[in-house]
Amino acid sequence: MGPWEVQPGLFRFLFGDRWEYAIEVEASDPDPLPASWGSLWLWVEGEIIGNPQADEQLGIVADWLRYLASMAGKRPASVFHDLDATSRLSLFEWWSSQSKSDPPYEWWSNPDFDATNYFLSHIQAGPALDHWWAMLMETEDAEIVTWRAPGSTAVRDACLPKGTYNDVVSAFLHWLNRKNGPA
């Protein structure tokens, strides 16, 4: 969708459904390229994940979203057993910190586990998602997004139809790369 002009010289683009899962972009160029600067944030069930005020090269976050899309099928929810959303995010944060302390759960002893495939927010995604904790995992028929905003203790969970993430990211990447090939 888009662009629509939110104020003179500032354009927004929306990919997906804000009430399910979407990527929203704001740029000063009505026809931005991967090297263009702008803001990008995610929507999950009507809530924003990310910082709409963060300005970055769109291609940086596009690279991270592309990587995550390529990991479809490689982030099983079963690795987290039956943990609730808060406990899953706690374990995920512990793993991400590369802490030498004991894991938060005695049963956790998976030294080969690589959480990189699960990171929806990651330092490599650029400033738009800095300080957010968000992860994406999969069951046989769904994608589960778990997140917490910076400074918040409230953890949210959303269950999306299988393939939603890749569909939205594909639409965004197709739009961003329409002139010059991959970002």
Labels describing this entry:
single chain, 183 residues, alpha+beta, six-stranded antiparallel sheet, three-stranded antiparallel sheet, 9 strands, 21% helix
Instruction: Report the uncertain regions.
Output: none
Quaternary state reads single chain
Rg estimate, integer Å = 17 Å
Average pLDDT, rounded to a whole number, is 81
Strand content of the residues, in percent? 25-35%
Structure classification: alpha+beta
Q: Could you describe the largest sheet, including whether it forms a barrel?
A: 6 strands, antiparallel
DSSP summary, beta strand count? 9
End-to-end separation: 19 Å
Order of helices and strands: EEEEEEHHEEEH
Question: Helix coverage percent of residues?
Answer: 10-25%
Tally of structural domains: 1
**Form type:** elongated
Total helical segments: 3
Describe the structure.
With 183 residues, this protein is α+β, with helices and mostly antiparallel strands. It has one domain (4-176). 21% of the residues lie in helices and 28% in strands. It is built from three helices and nine strands; from the N terminus they run ββββββααβββα. Strands 1, 2, 3, 4, 5 and 6 form a six-stranded antiparallel beta sheet that branches. A three-stranded antiparallel beta sheet has the order 7-8-9, covered by helices on one side. The radius of gyration is 17 Å and the shape is elongated.
How would you summarize the topology of this molecule?
Elements: E1 4-7, E2 10-17, E3 21-27, E4 37-44, E5 47-49, E6 56-57, H1 58-70, H2 85-96, E7 133-138, E8 142-148, E9 156-161, H3 164-176
Antiparallel strand pairs: 1-2, 2-3, 3-4, 4-5, 4-6, 7-8, 8-9
Helix pairs in contact: 1-3
